[in-house]
From TrEMBL:
<dbReference type="InterPro" id="IPR000092">
    <property type="entry name" value="Polyprenyl_synt"/>
</dbReference>
<protein>
    <recommendedName>
        <fullName>Octaprenyl diphosphate synthase</fullName>
        <ecNumber>2.5.1.90</ecNumber>
    </recommendedName>
</protein>
<dbReference type="InterPro" id="IPR008949">
    <property type="entry name" value="Isoprenoid_synthase_dom_sf"/>
</dbReference>
<dbReference type="GO" id="GO:0008299">
    <property type="term" value="P:isoprenoid biosynthetic process"/>
</dbReference>
<comment type="similarity">
    <text>Belongs to the FPP/GGPP synthase family.</text>
</comment>
<dbReference type="GO" id="GO:0106350">
    <property type="term" value="F:all-trans-octaprenyl-diphosphate synthase activity"/>
</dbReference>
<keyword id="KW-0460">Magnesium</keyword>
<comment type="function">
    <text>Supplies octaprenyl diphosphate, the precursor for the side chain of the isoprenoid quinones ubiquinone and menaquinone.</text>
</comment>
<dbReference type="Pfam" id="PF00348">
    <property type="entry name" value="polyprenyl_synt"/>
</dbReference>
<dbReference type="GO" id="GO:0046872">
    <property type="term" value="F:metal ion binding"/>
</dbReference>
<keyword id="KW-0479">Metal-binding</keyword>
<dbReference type="InterPro" id="IPR033749">
    <property type="entry name" value="Polyprenyl_synt_CS"/>
</dbReference>
<keyword id="KW-0808">Transferase</keyword>
Amino acid sequence: MQPHQLNPLIEPQFDAVTDYILNHLGSNVPLVEKMGHYIVESGGKRLRPLLVLLSANACGYTGEKHIPLAAVIEFIHTATLLHDDVVDNSDLRRGKSTANAKWGNAPSVLVGDFLYSRAFQILVEIGRMEIMQVISHATTVIAEGEVLQLLNQRNPDTSEESYMQVILGKTAMLFEAATEAGAILANTSPDARQAMQAYGRHLGIAFQLIDDVMDYLSSAEEMGKNVGDDLAEGKATLPLIYAMRQGDETQRQLIRQAIRKGGLEDLSPILTIVQETGAIDYAHSKAQEQVDLAIAALEHLPDTSFRDTLRSLAQMAVARKA
């Protein structure tokens, strides 16, 4: 089941967001429109815009501005994907060729910029300064998170604290912005707004933790990307950080060298080390902690089907396999 199918009340709104997105990809430059449609239509669960819809509904919103607001979040997310794939030199995402693999790096960066700009055009039309403040802050933090990840690349001394700082910025920040913006749109109480902000942050951290775990578990068919991509890019994610901490000196040095040089030459023995040291279980436990915090935050919201769906989404975050 797709996340948006968890609640029949949300499905028509989710379909309206999809239509809105496709109707706002227009450009006088054909390549911009072509690439925009390619990346937006290439799959994905559209979890972030769904969070806007659920947050607004859970806080009692009855208007229609949550539809363009959800599209704003998806445009920003799509822009970050385009830029990420260029930085990481990725050629596969969601089981399809990346935009940079098809059209090159320069067009991918520029179309990403176009999507950012279109997102802020729509924000101006929505006309809520508080929401614009939240989202403009989020885009700044996301950019900082990406730069920090770049600085940590091929650095085997990356600490768990630094790793968490990266995922808080590059992933959790947009989740947090999505849920907080939905709450602001609903003119909800300060407590409910803070609850939705916390829910989004903790869910985003859990989501990224599981994503990093799956890099050492899943097949390319399940994930839509290559197994070991993080290792190939020299990224010291939590499974490797914990494995180095728990492993013996030989295991530790093998991982350190693999992170420094990148590539997949040592993937097989490292997969074994990650399993033997309990790194997968550790990362899963950390993700579960974040899910528990996300669910606890929901207690500040009215008891509705939308709150129940938010709880189910959090539970799905640690159970997912793709």
